[in-house]
Design brief:
This protein has about 200 residues and is mostly helical. Helix content is about 75%, strand content about 0%.
């Protein structure tokens, strides 16, 4: 039987390009989501709901709501993961303010948009995970559950999303919630199927 190659460490440059790519993809996905007036799950979903209700920008709310999770990340996943997550959240907060200045959508079908944004955010999160980072919040909890129990991070996030969308039904139009749910399912299925430590060997 051929032996599996030993895991390889990402270099500092690898991490810079990986985290930058992940943030860029997620940022475009979030811009599409807010353009359509949709919501998403996880901590970002909570931030978007709060942004809609309070009038504050998504970037500001998302940054603040993630602060308590850094303590958990520091204690359970280490300083490197925490710093990368803090940098990622900060960059996403900035990117989501900048992308609308250079990209607008005159026509965006909600079904196609939901599938596309789900794919973009899902792939972006996988890139971040594989460079030992995250966008904080529930992502930290989901990774902890996966590492300690083997229960996939995507399924953890999908269960939490169910609660977020149940609340959203009381706040938003049913069609908005259904389109949003489609995007969340695509996002979490991509993570559940593709983010597996038994397949990906780089660290």
């Amino acid at each position: 039987m051929p032996q599996k190659p030993a895991p390889t460490e990402h270099s500092f440059i690898d991490d810079i390009q990986g985290i930058s790519l992940g943030i860029f993809l997620v940022g475009i996905g979030v811009h599409m989501l807010t353009t359509l007036g949709l919501i998403t799950g996880q901590t970002a979903g909570v931030a978007i709901i709060m942004a809609y209700l309070t009038g504050y920008s998504f970037g500001t709310v998302f940054f603040v709501i993630n602060l308590p999770f850094y303590v958990l990340a520091w204690k359970r996943l280490g300083i490197t993961f925490t710093i990368k997550s803090l940098v990622s959240v900060t960059l996403l907060s900035v990117v989501t303010e900048l992308i609308p200045l250079g990209m607008t959508f005159d026509q965006l079908n909600p079904v196609l948009g939901a599938v596309t944004l789900g794919a973009l955010i899902g792939v972006g999160l996988i890139v971040l995970f594989r460079h030992n980072g995250s966008l904080g919040g529930l992502g930290v909890v989901a990774l902890l559950v996966q590492d300690n129990t083997g229960f996939r991070a995507g399924w953890v996030q999908l269960i939490f999303d169910g609660f977020v969308f149940a609340i959203a039904l009381f706040l938003f139009d049913t069609k908005v919630v259904l389109y949003s749910l489609l995007g969340a399912v695509v996002l979490n299925l991509i993570i559940a199927v593709n983010h597996r430590r038994d397949r990906y060997i780089a660290t």
